[in-house]
Amino acid sequence: MPNDGSTSSLSTERSFVPLLDLLLFYRSRRILLIWSLFIFLIFFMIMLLVLSFFTNFVSSQIQFVIPAPAEEDSPLWHLLFWFLNGMFLVCLRAASFFLSFLPAYVLASPFLQFLSISAEALYHGKKLKDDAFPDIDEVLGDLKDGSVTAILCFGVTVIAIIADFIPFLGALICAVMLLSASAFLVVRFPSSRRGWDLRQTIEWIIGHPWDSARIGMFPPLMATVPILSPFLVATMFPFLIIYGALNLDLIEGSRRKKTSVAQTMIVEEDS
Question: Quick check: pTM over 0.70?
Fold first, then answer.
């Protein structure tokens, strides 16, 4: 049966939507492709302008705290040093990338919210209204919420850079914080539509560490790719917004079903 865009290509009876399956979801949905292309242009142009500045500034001002081993030190210590130094540089590059990413995130937030709403509606087989685009008050609200989210993630990124200096465990702590910040940026749009404040969104991320890691892992990984990182993130982030919206919807829907079943069983036992 041909896909007319009014029904979902993905099953709603699953617990998680893999990122690759979203390629099926984009099929015959030109509105998602058009808005994704527009968001790509916003991200790519802004990040192209500011990424090199942030990356060069952070890299030139911050150095690894552990001194390089002397020639007479054991090969194991040399290997450990280069491993820790490599992890430090990877996390530092990802963190500096986040700093350049946030201005684009704020400016694109109304379009990202609209993309998230559209994807969730199409996923449930609904048709988009011709006047579905938000009005000026909604746009200003999205810009405000995007700014608050970006400021919070900026603070987390700065703390992650500081944590990166901790010997041995610093890179791991930094990576966890960047993954959490990335997941927060992705799920904040659908969570705000549910009326969640920042605290509730953070609690959801903490309460779903595995799901949050799966949702937030891609931006930090793409940030470490030399030269191509602005293009990769600008291309993938619209996908990730839809990825986060659909998976948050599925996870919360599954939780509601389990709660409803549990309550029904309690009522039946009482009766």
Answer: yes
